[in-house]
Write a structure and sequence with these properties.
- This protein is 67% helix and 3% strand.
- The protein is mostly helical.
- It has one domain.
- Strands 1-2 form a two-stranded antiparallel sheet.
């Protein structure tokens, strides 16, 4: 699934210099990985959501190509930005659905991959976004690690490489971020609505 990093990095630099052909080649090279990450995001969504991995990737792509003079550093940074775009799309989608339904069902995502609780823990995607923003206010690094791991699907190693941190630091901060998010999100009253 992975393409040699140096190939993608060279193309990203060419894209940053305005080469639109390079932009198309980058997307072609990382498309399957982006689609896989989108599928991971969407598996965490509530049942019956309407977004599909392909649609999420295409929407992220449209936002990425809107970057006029991007200063792409490498493949990991590109994938992290794409993951941020996917996060924003999911948040926008949840907000639109909430506006449309007002008091209707809220979008739920599963945090059971967090390994903090022994039971599955579902949280509203908007609540998660708010919690990540609160975490960022006092610990930007932990918030960024949580965003890259949760929304980006980056491994601990990829996260460390992107943020120029040791694996031990990433593991420690990821554990702290997960614990803080679990405490914060489980303390919030959750509205249980009909799906």
């Amino acid at each position: 699934m992975s393409t040699p990093t140096h190939d993608v990095t060279e193309l990203l630099h060419a894209w940053g210099d305005g080469d639109l052909n390079a932009r198309e080649r980058v997307v072609a090279l990382v498309y399957q990985e982006l689609r896989h990450r989108a599928a991971v995001h969407l598996r965490r969504e509530r049942q019956g959501h309407t977004l599909q991995p392909t649609a999420l990737v295409h929407e992220a792509y449209l936002r990425l190509v809107d970057q006029r003079k991007a200063e792409w550093q490498n493949r990991a940074q590109f994938l992290a930005v794409a993951s941020q775009m996917m996060r924003r799309i999911l948040i926008d989608s949840a907000r639109a659905r909430k506006r449309g339904k007002r008091l209707g069902a809220r979008q739920q995502i599963s945090l059971d991959h967090v390994d903090i609780a022994t039971r599955p823990f579902e949280v509203d995607v908007l609540d998660l976004d708010i919690a990540l923003t609160k975490l960022e206010a006092f610990d930007r690094r932990k918030s960024r690690i949580a965003e890259l791991r949760f929304f980006g699907g980056l491994s601990l190693e990829e996260t460390g490489h992107l943020l120029d941190l040791s694996l031990a630091t990433v593991e420690r901060d990821w554990q702290g971020a997960r614990a803080w998010l679990f405490r914060t999100l489980s303390a919030q009253p959750r509205v249980v609505d009909d799906p």
